[in-house]
Amino acid sequence: MAILGSLIKGAIDLKDKLTPDANPVEEQKKVLYQLLETAKDTSFGKHYNFKEILTHVDIRTAFAEAVPYHDYDKMNVEWWSKLHKGEKNVTWPGSPSYFALSSGTTGKTSKRIPVTDEMIEAIRAAGIQQVTALANFDLEADFYEKEIMMLGSSTDLQERDGHLEGEISGISASNIPFWFKGYYKPGEDIAKIDNWDDRVKTIAENAKTWDIGALSGIPSWMELMMQEVIEHHGVATIHDIWPNLQVYTSGGVAFQPYEKSFNKHLARPITVIDTYLASEGFIAFQQGPETDAMKLVTDNGIYFEFVPFKPEYINPDGSLTQDAPVVMLEDVELDQDYALIMSTVSGAWRYLIGDTIEFTDIEKAEIKITGRTKFFLNVVGSQLSVNKMNTAIGEIEEEYDVEIPEFTLAAVRIDEEFHHHWYLGTTADLNDKEVAQKLDEALKDANKNYKVARSKALKGVKVTTIDPTLFHDWNEHNKKKGGQVKMERVMDEDKFSVWETFVKERS
Asked: From the record, what ranges are coiled-coil (predicted)?
């Protein structure tokens, strides 16, 4: 009998039962007050007069009226760059212990996002909330005695100007609580291996020595790791190596496009739990099996605002217009895409993280990630979000019984007329013209704006199917392999031209 597992499961169940029902709106009011109070004497706080904002009855409205929207470039040029020159108390008291490096999916160079000790604690606390929520998934007691494979970036952080730098998954893994280290795999030594291929090879070599019950990481790279382990040991599925694998904690991107190809590596279904950890903080996690939506972490170091994601509020580079209206948590609506705005204990203020979300349950503050502001395809009024793209690709997978884990597209001019050119990653032998027609029909059914665009400026759809490994090769070619790297779903014409040349050279 799993005695330790039963004790842990019992403690989690009890904590879940004793935790009072939350009021996300009231929690958010409290978080904003704490943020402003703590940062009022920083350079940023003085510049935007946080002390005066705190005197208002409605500090949320006063805050929104006083402080402009910031994206990374604006925040970094005007404020965070001062931290690199040794200044303190810039946007948060003191100096950050870490900087999270994030090139994201569109950046040419790494962003350097401050991560304070308060943020490390907030991420840890949100992680504990997520563990507590496991009580809702009806897992067997022995699950709580198994090890967890966390496939993130290297934990070999680089020292620079008195702080440490690395990707957020590596920073988080290097700060795991002492009591968790016995469960954490691949362990500190392997996690420090900087080269992705070497790290995965070492994981494969050691895989049989571990009793893995859960996986955690971005789907595309988790698939490659499982494939390496399976091939190294000459077995059929990952369950032949880790028979007690029960849970996969996904994160960073929507799991839907990867589901079919991911499941091919398994002998039986496992529980998939979505999480939303970004370089800027632990944003949301899935609370139970009845939904695949995630609950915003509304009580822990991050204050959220929401901007309706409409073309008139979005600049060509994906940033927001300063006159874009903001919506507070209690006023959001279902079936509406919002650009997510955050203010945090790392000193980000009214910060456009670059993701779009929609609410599935307003009272519980549950959301789904729908895409990226820069991946919103609206060159000719088609208004396609990544969520709509994922849904259409899912229909193609079902129609042809194939796996399409990766894709990218652009609005391109063919004979001076706009077309959407899709590259679909699949090993199946498909008729590209036929798939293009099916994809076009699926998008027309799902999106009225797309249907209107197809009757006017958007003249056609082109599909090119390629080997899925080319998407990974592209990321590696751009020095973005492993860890938290995500494939860009939408490209502009110039980058798409470079992509097409790359594909032709590698095919």
From this structure: none
